[in-house]
Amino acid sequence: MISLTTIQEDALIEICNVGMSKAAKQLSILLNSHINIHIPKISLLDMQHFIQNNIFSSIETLSYVYQTISEDLLGRAILMFHRAQATLLTQSVIGITPKLTEKEAKACEQEAVLEIGNIMITSCMSAIVNMISLHIKLDTPHYNEHRLIEVIESQVKDVEKYSQEIILIETRLESAGKFISGSLLLMLTKSSIDNLLSGINNLLKV
Amino acid sequence: MIINDFLYEEIFQYLPLGLFVLDSKCNVIFWNEWMVEKTKIKKEHAIGKTIGNLFPSMKHERFNNAVEQIQTVASPQVLSQTLNHYIIPIPSNIYEKIDYMQQHVEVFPLKSKLGWLALVVIQDVTDNVHQKNTMMQMASKLEEESYHDALTAIYNRRFLWEYLEQQIAQAKRGNYSICCCMFDLDYFKKANDDFGHSAGDQILTSFVNLINGTVRSSDVFVRYGGEEFLLIMPHTDITDGSKLANKIRVLWEEKIHANFIGYKSTCSAGLSLWKPKNPVSSQELVDLADKALYKAKEKGRNCVVF
Fold first, then answer.
1. What is the C-alpha to C-alpha distance for residues A13 and A167, in angstroms, rounded to an integer?
2. CA nearest A99 in B: which residue?
3. Active-site residues of B: which are they?
4. Does A139 touch chain B (CB under 8 A)?
5. What 3-state DSSP class applies to B271?
6. What are A46-100's pLDDT values in tens digits?
7. Tell me, what's the ipTM?
8. Do B82 and A111 touch (CB under 8 A)?
9. A32, A187, B1, B93: which has the fewest Cβ within 10 Å?
């Protein structure tokens, strides 16, 4: 199994931080709150290893947004948050809404988290492909809630010939003094991972 | 029957949705009939202009970012009503307090020889928003007028003062005491911050269920504030009142909250007593309980003080 070298990781972190800073700017306007997003770590690791070692507990429900990637890279980008923390993201806009039924409040939250996830995924992917001169297409974003193992199982079913390795981009979002941790997974085919790493290596040579 | 270009054109023109297309320089190249009707901007006037030119007062940032993402990674973009309210400022005078049409907007990439075009689709969701606002107002009004708390269904402050006045009058005639206990959930605001308001609501409901299962039928339980509750115990002296308060405190401390990993529930309580030989007003009775509660907090929380 290959892993990222320190230099590759540093390069990816820098690229993704550029993307996420653009996302943060958008989110700050939308959420009426100063948002700061940074990426403490990026790893290339085995799927099984990720399932056993991650920031989520096996029983908790996660909120996640995903988009399918095509053209020069094939696979899926999945952004996951703790369900309860996803709610915190939208509080400054939706506020405390005791007067909405739980169903209505949840519908508002889901709509908001879908857009937030859409912004973060596209900003990050946009930064990556721009820097390494690849062309990709992302499909419509989708929102769902599941436990981690169910998220992985459902995504693996849809992504043909995915690699056993995933690129894990850990995100840390700060809003009004609160910290919200998320994980952006890139589930790609083997050749796509090679393509991406090759692009990073070419960038480092320049 | 084959659907030809003419029919596609007709379909796009007459769909009950706003549709317009921007080229790679963000100029309008297509503007459907819905857009003409709602914005009062004719097609000939819109074509060749940017959205910024057509709507100078429009908040551009999110929309521009969305179009940029179309051009960069051909990624569809969702601009929700929840976060944006609307993108194109189209005045609306149908409902009071809604000045502009509320919109759910999506932007899709269209491939062309000259690069990615942006197809903007606008859905009018003003009716849904108005309905939601109306229900919220009605729920607020009902809550104000009722004696019950909307979340927990127990009595509210409005009920408390009316009830306490009557209860004190009865206690004077019947020559018995009333014990008043004020509970406050410790570190509740932190739980709200860590787990969200929905979780906070569940915690409050859980506490109410625990109390309801513990107290006597003659006791009255009231939601006094966000995380403050009052238990009014007629025919109860301070000793028995504190025993019950401690029982509740221990039960709450022992309760496991499976959905909120890391949350440890405790509560603090302060007691006061109304007795015939030392009658106080209902406000004074509650204030004394509040002061005792304050002492419980100062002592380190998770205790009962009287």
1. 12
2. B136
3. 227
4. yes
5. strand
6. 888 888 888 887 778 899 999 999 999 999 999 998 887 777 777 666 655 545 6
7. 0.85
8. yes
9. B1
